[in-house]
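Notes from hallway chat w/ T.B., transcribed later so I don't forget. T.B. wanted the structure written out for a chain they're using in a teaching module, and asked if we could keep both sequence and structure tokens in one place. Agreed to drop them here.
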Amino acid sequence: MTRPHPAPRGAFGAAVADRPAPSLARVQGGGPGVVAPTLDIGVIGGCGHVGLPLAIGLALRGHHVCLLDVNATARAKVARGVMPFAEEGAPEALRQALDAGHLRVASEEADLAEAEVVLLVVGTPVDGHLSPALAAIHEVLEQYRPHLRDGQLMVLRSTMYPGTAEGVWRWLQAQRLQIDLAVCPERIAQGAALREIAELPQIVAGFTPAAVDRAAVLFASLGCEIVQVGPKEAELAKLFANAWRYIRFAAANQFLMMAEDLGADFEEVFRAMTHNYPRAADLPRPGFAAGPCLFKDTMQLSASTNNRFFLGHAAMMANEGLPQYVTARLRGRYGLSGRTVGLLGMAFKAGVDDARDSLAYKLKALLELEGATVLCTDPYVDDPALLPLGAVVAAADVLVITTPHPCYRRAELGRAPVVDIWNFLGRGSRV
């Protein structure tokens, strides 16, 4: 059996042995005013959309947090106090955490050995065959294996394919590492992460009672309620929640396309359905449903059930089919060959700078296949191919609101017709 690693001192602060032992009795399910020990925390993937807001939140509550990330550009920005992506309230919070000395960027991988808690923010994406890609987690575990030690708490934070956590647990046992393993999936929405990590209940699961105990203490220090389940249930709770959102968006998008094909005003239908009627209040408005989570997690669930998640596949067809539907409607109404189409917004949702898996880029490709010249703009996304809003508006024969960024409500959009599938502006054609 591996000998326990000596309690280290150094970058994080006090030695592990100096910390009081966690106790689940101390947290009482979380909430404001919870007293928790100050912890030394290492975050693998700590400069990304999930890891960094959590790291900042923990640092602001007195923990000593060290960030490890393969993205050198993001690491350099964070070290200078610059957020590598848009997040409400994060620039000021990052600076505060750095100035307090509670947050730092690791100088080398070996810094992880000093951590009492290892937050692993590495998920399982889907590949080109819509199957889960598990290699990333295994590669990270092997990469940091020399710096893992007995006595640590490892927390799996990202959304994962069902059974991934059990695989990590078996790997730790095969390595003869006495590490407590917890499963605590993130639940935040991009843009609201700093607020939601404290407001939303936190799912906590573990493979040992000590793992549950220690993870509960960690997250209760944020002031959130703790919901305890088993590891497989924790994985599925996150996946089911994302798939449910994806299905609801698909229903709205399917209804929109049906109303358009039947010559009905969808906005009037939506108003009639939802006005003071509680059983339809949860119907979202239609629009592009994409991004790095919902589609991926729905497909992971399908793969985990031998592709028998028929409702998930139907939702995928509706959501992924909306760009084709918009293209066909534009072709019929305005013609596309030789026309210039302006796309307003390339991020996957409003108010963020993340364009990963955005359906706006899919629409762009489809329009170009029809012979249209497509000009794109976005006030948040960093893409040298994007143009200023004014240039797009001046050149376009027709505009499409692809991402409902708030600034477009106040923008001068000229005289070109506006296709607004979200009915964001409350005027113009939906499709």
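Follow-up for T.B.: The chain has two domains: 16-229, 263-419. Might be a good example for the class.
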